[in-house]
Each structure stands twice: as C-alpha cells, then as structure tokens.
Amino acid sequence: MKLKAKTQRLYLVIGAMTALGGAGALAFSTLGDKATYFYAPSDLAGKAPPTAAIRLGGMVEKGSLVRAGQTVRFIVTDNAKTWPVTYTGILPDLFREGQGVIAEGKIDPGTGVFTAETILAKHDEKYMPPEVAGAMHKVKSVT
Amino acid sequence: MHRFANPARFLRIARWATPITLGLGLILTSVGLWIGLFDSPPDYQQGESVRIMYVHVPAAWLGSAGYFGLAVASATALIWRHPLATIAARAIAPAGAAFTAICLVSGSLWGKPTWGTYWVWDARLTSQLVLLFLYLGYLALSASEGESGENRKGAAILALVGAINLPIIKYSVEWWNTLHQGSSINVLAGKSTIAPAILTPLLVSVAGFTLLFAAIVLMRMRALIAEQRVEARSRRLAEVLA
Question: Which residue segment(s) compose the domain that A101 sits in?
C-alpha cells in the first residue's frame, strides 16, 4: 500500500524526533555529573580530594558558623556527609545557617579544609511571608 | 483540524477573540502585578526582592510554552503544509523570544541580591539562554527563507530540533546540581511550596500574561495574513499592468 505523502511526512517527523530524543538522552546520560554546577560533600567523600578548583554545595550546618573578623568558618552538609569550609570576604545577604550555599575554591591538601574564593547563597523553592515562617519555626523573622 | 486551518475562518474567529484576550489579559496582568508589587507580603528570606518573581515566572513560562507552540506549529507546517501553521509559528517566535529575554534579565537582577551573582553557567540558566538563541536562530532563518519565497522549511526543522531543549530546561534543576532552585509548583500533583498570599497574585499574573501573549500572537497572525494578501494583490496588479 502506498502511503499518502502527508502520512509519510508525519512518520518521518515522528521518527526523526524519536531518534533525536534518543540521541539527546544518550548524550546527556554520558555527560552525567560533568554538567553539574557543584559537588555535594557526599560526592567528594571517599575519593582522593581534587586538586583543581571546584564548587562545593550544600547547607550551612546549624551552629557551625564561626566568625573571626573578615574570615568565617562553617561546615557544609548534605545531611549525609559534611565538609569544613573557610572564607575571607563579603558574604551575600542570604548567607545564613540552615540555608543553601555554594562555595568556589580549592581543598587545602594539608588540612583537607575547603578554602573558598567566592560564596554564593542558594535559595530553596519555598516562598512564604515572614509571619508564616516565624509561626512555623517559632523564631523571630530573619529578614 | 482542517476547519481551523482555513484563513478566512481563522480571521472571523480572531476578529472577536483578539479584543477579548487583550482586554482580559490587561485586566488580569494589572490585578496580578498590583497585588504582587503593592499588596502582598515580602518573603521570609528574600524580603522585597521576591516581587521580581511576579514578572519572572510568567516570562519563563511563556518562553517555554511559546516554544512548544512554535514547535507544534512548525510540525503542522512540515507535515500538513497548512499556510496558517507557518504564519502561527512566525507570529509566536518574536513574542516568545521577548518573554525569554525578560525572564533572563529579571532573573539576573534577582540573582545579584539573592545569590550574590548576576549570572552563573549552571544547567538551568544555560539551557534558558540556549532557548533565547533558538528563538533568534528561528527568526533569522525564517526571515532569510522568506526572502527567497521558500516554504520556510529550514526554520521549521530548526524549531523542531530545538524542542529537545524544553525538557532539559524543565528538568535541569532535578538532573543536575544547580544554583537555581527547584520547581515550587507541581501542576500534575496540584502542589506548591509557595504560601497562598504569594501564590495567588503569581497565578493571576501568569494567567494575565498568558492571555496577553495569546492576544499578541493573534494580532501578529492577522497582520501577517494581511501582509501576504497585499503582496499577492500587488503581484497580480503588476502582472496586469505589465
């Protein structure tokens, strides 16, 4: 049976899009964590610490923040593993304990401490008024 | 399908659909933005800068939804060769590109006070920038093909190939670690992590901008059809006079 021209074109487009989708899926699964913006402490644990500059991301562990002049020390956690970080400089407004953070820098080969050159604050997907947040956490508004 | 692909029938529907979508869109956008900017609470972490979201989220949604429309119209043009499908695609592209640009700029302005940077090359931001480039590529290719009197087949194929970027944008925040936060609204599950006082103006504003987008596309489609008719008429006239 000879297909109508437009039916042929329909199958061609469907076939081409399926092949393209498959190729894309293969490409991106190979890309894997090379396209990741930062590593969590769990990604680094148990491996030889990378010597190149990397980004380390996670939560600032509550109660871990220590300030000494312009320098801060804190612990980044992903609720499984943790990593100590030190940074000297100006912190973004949203930087605080219990919030997401991404540190750019290097792991000190001697001490294993992550020395950050840049600190970015990460925002989560929750949005609420200060009163609601205050009632939920039974703390005063942090803004 | 064929019933709506008839330009005369389309023009009859578009004649009354344009003022309705435009009017409703203007009202809902004004209400959504008014509540969002002046009559809604700040966020417990970001403070007042959360208000950028009332423009950023509708722009992001329309950038992606517009591209989906562009891809569907291009597929229809390639397979069934409806002239109206090509016109729809050409009408959507600049509007979608504009909203994608608004999304990128507003997000960047929000990023500086919130994250501490205007731009990073994470998966979400990068894939959204690629979306803008796909729109610009479509516009350039379509314009050059239009001059040679072609069916704009190349531009349609580009639009279809680029559609692979849509799921990448959507799931970039799940597949990879990104600076951009994950999705707040799960449409399929009907769940959101946004408090009602912030979510309500956001949804009104999304609905308003979507209707405005529809009105822009309808107006552009009518203009493109009129343009084609003028061209066809002047060509006939030139033949008669020659």
Answer: 37-142
